[in-house]
Amino acid sequence: CSVEADTARSVARARIGWSLAVAVLLLPFGGYGLARAGALPEGSPIVLGLMAVIAGSLLLPALCEERAPFRHSSSRLIARTLTGERSVDLNEIATVWLLTTFSYGSTYRTLVVRDSHGVRLGITTERSRKKLRRAIEKADAGAARGAPGPRVSSAAREYLASASGRGLVGHTILAFLLLVVSVSLYVAVVLRLGGQ
Q1: 193/18 Cα distance (integer angstroms)
Q2: Which of 55, 53, 37 is nearest to 190 (CA)?
Q3: Whole-structure pTM over 0.85, yes or no?
Q4: CB distance 27 to 40 below 8 Å
Q5: Residue 49 phi, psi (nearest 5)
Q6: What SS3 state is found at 20?
Q7: Is 191 in a helix, a strand, or coil?
Q8: Which of 83, 133, 84 is closest to 113 using CA atoms?
Q9: In this predicted model, what pLDDT tens digit does every residue of 39-74 receive, in sequence order?
Q10: Contact predicate 90/119, CB 8 Å
Q11: Distances (CA, A) of 69 to 72, 103, 127
């Protein structure tokens, strides 16, 4: 019962964190409405948009990333995140995918694990990667015998096999292009709102 309650609290805190991040990204649209009503200056959506891009680029990738202190047991990864402690059940992994972000000319990779209870955790340490690799190997062995296995993206498998990221050129280019296109579209919409 305690594990179920902790899981429910963890999922609820994560939803609140994501809701706040989305609210930050929607600030320019609220600013646009207030500017149209005369409550804010006309260029306020642009200022709010620039602040939202900066805050969103820092906040969104970090919401579920593991931070010290973290603990491992035979079947769980437990770590602190921005939204509180999360505990992922390694025996019930549902999905694993690789999140690639960029900052100051460097590439950062996070393995995002979601278990069947809906708890997500971003794996960033070598120790956690090893635990996750062993859990996936165990799940794959069970899947070979007919048990349902987790969905693991090909980029996540490649990264788990070799943390150097040498085989992830295509994934990295695609992640960079997706980031550039999405930020460009967001900025274009904000500039359009600011120009009214």
Answers
A1: 24
A2: 53
A3: no
A4: no
A5: -65, -45
A6: helix
A7: helix
A8: 133
A9: 878 777 778 888 888 787 777 777 778 887 667 777
A10: no
A11: 10, 24, 13
Q: Please name the residues in contact with 67: beta carbons below 8 A apart, sequence gap of 6 or more.
A: 79, 80, 81, 82
Residue 146 pLDDT > 90: no
CA distance 55 to 85: 22
- Provide the token pair at 196: 């009214």
Q: What is the pLDDT of residues 26-41, one digit of tens each?
A: 888 888 888 778 887 8
Report how far residue 185's alpha carbon sits from residue 189's, in angstroms, rounded to the nearest whole number: 6
DSSP string, 38-70: TSS-TTHHHHHHHHHHHHHHHHHHHSSB-EEEE
3-state secondary structure of 83: coil
Which of these, 3, 17, 176, lies nearest to 88 by C-alpha position? 3
Name the residue type at position 58.
L
Question: Which element (helix H / strand E) includes 111?
Answer: strand 106-115
pLDDT 10s digits, 75-120: 888 888 888 888 889 989 999 999 998 877 788 899 999 998 888 8
Residue labelled with tokens 């010290």: 68
Q: Measured between alpha carbons, how far is 172 from 15 in angstroms, rounded to an integer? A: 28
